[in-house]
Amino acid sequence: MKTMQFIILLILVLGTNVSFATTVGTTPENAKMSIYETINKAGYQRMLTQRIAKSYMAIVCNLDHEKQEEHLKGSAKIFEKNLEDLDYSAPNEAIQTKVHYVKTLWQKNKFLYKNVYTEENALKVLTFNNEILKACDDVVLLLEEYAIKNEASRNKKNKKSTHSLSSIINFSGKQRMLTQRILLFSLANSYSIGDKELQVACLKESIRAFEELFRALISCSKNTAEIDEELDVSSKAWVEMKKELNNILSSENNTAELKEQLAKMMQLGEEILFSFDEVAFLYEREQ
């Protein structure tokens, strides 16, 4: 079973001329999402922040400009629509306040992505990227905390752990974000945009976090056969993607070989993103 978000991702990748107005609105009007749906969508926002920045960086690096610009604009449109859904479904005032903060940040800074594709502006994008990511992550963490309290009220033995459903949805959703963040800093590092030492550190930390969460998900007691199958798909793609990462880190900048390696790595990243989007939905369905 493929989720609506999977279809949206497919549209972003293929650049299909489908109306986002009819595709993105997955929540019926006047119907609030469940807490687990809300956590998943809030986690999706983290991924979109990194996807938008990655697409911008790819354009600056002169990698498939037209396609990446479609990805950037489509992702931004989904991000804004999801903010409205999260605002409507926020279960308390504290969470709604955090959503409003994300809205304010985005409205003040989204001009950074508007048709000015320069290395100078890319540095501003990288700085803002970390700020908006943290703000979106704060929303997820508050939602997770709210859900865990509700779980505990239904089951006094339930404690926050990797076996809490809300935490597992958070973890699997975070993998979507990390795939895009790895691609973002691979591009920045390969084309020497910004502080190279810092970009390598961010890349290595993202890889470490991705692999740590992957191990936690593989051993999760809530895994079904369908989830295990998707995790296996992701695992195989990750082995190949990491090979390309290692090759890229040892490549000379701006070579034809480097561009081929980046193209292959970005395609593998899309496969992992699709797979973890499905995993997150399958966990959500366990509620």
Quick recap of the structure?
The protein has 287 residues and is mainly α. It contains ten helices and no strands.
Explain this structure:
The chain is mostly helical and 287 residues long. It has one domain (34-282). The protein has 10 helices and no strands. It has helices at 4-14, 20-23, 35-60, 65-89, 93-109, 119-154, 165-190, 196-218, 225-249, 256-284. Helix 7 runs antiparallel to helix 8 (196-218), helix 7 packs antiparallel against helix 10 (256-284) and helix 9 packs antiparallel against helix 10 (256-284). The model is unreliable at 15-25 (pLDDT under 50).
Keywords:
287 residues, mainly alpha, 0% strand
Reported for the largest beta sheet, the result is: none
Oligomer: single chain
Strand content: under 5%
Please estimate the helix content: over 70%
Q: What is the chain-wise order of helices and strands?
A: HHHHHHHHHH
Number of domains: 1
**What's the pLDDT, averaged over the residues?**
88
SS class: mainly alpha
General shape:
globular
Poorly predicted ranges (pLDDT <50, ≥5 residues)? 15-25
Cα end-to-end separation: 17 Å
Give a count of the beta strands, DSSP E runs of length 2 or more. 0
Q: How many helix segments?
A: 10
Rg over CA atoms: 18 Å
